[in-house]
Amino acid sequence: MTYEQKADFVVWGHIFYIFIVIISLPFLFLISWWYKVALVLTTSTFLSWIILRGYCWITKLENKFRKKHNPSSAYTEGFIQHYLTNTFRVSFPSFIFVVILDSYIFLLFFIALKQAL
Q1: Which of 23, 35, 68, 116 is close enough to 3 for a disulfide, judged by CB 3.0 to 4.6 Å?
Q2: Sign of the C-alpha dihedral, residues 108, 113, 116, 117?
Q3: In terms of C-beta density within 10 A (0-12 exposed, 13-18 middle, 19 or more buried), how is residue 77 classed?
Q4: Exposure of 25 by Cβ count < 10 A (0-12 exposed, 13-18 middle, 19+ buried)?
């Protein structure tokens, strides 16, 4: 498996992770035990942001593989911002992405925590 293939594999895993996070909010109201999944997802996201100072470990892993394949293919912005800009030509300031993402993760965390208690 080449480094490019590894990076692409990580991208698909990251997309799956984001998809699960997105559907977690409605699932909290539909599936009684889903709060456990949501707490694991949000806690791991928070810890990643704290430990890596605002960066995601999955993005770091993808960029590690991209740099080994082709150093110019790595990117510095966040995963969602990078792929929205490059795939759909949607461009927003980084601040907008941070506010939306952090707000959603905090909302998900506190609703899941409330259900746990």
Answers
A1: 68
A2: negative
A3: middle
A4: middle
The count of structural domains within the chain is 1
Dist. CA 27–CA 20, nearest whole Å: 10
Give φ, ψ of 54 to 5 degrees: 95, 0
CA 41, 42, 46, 47 torsion: positive or negative?
Answer: negative
Say whether 92 sits in a helix, a strand or coil.
coil
**For 36-86, what is each residue's pLDDT tens digit?**
999 999 999 999 989 998 889 999 999 999 999 999 999 988 899 899 888
Residue 102 CA to residue 62 CA, distance in Å, equals: 21
Contacts 24+ apart (CB under 8 A), 51-58: 56/14, 58/10, 58/13, 58/14, 58/17
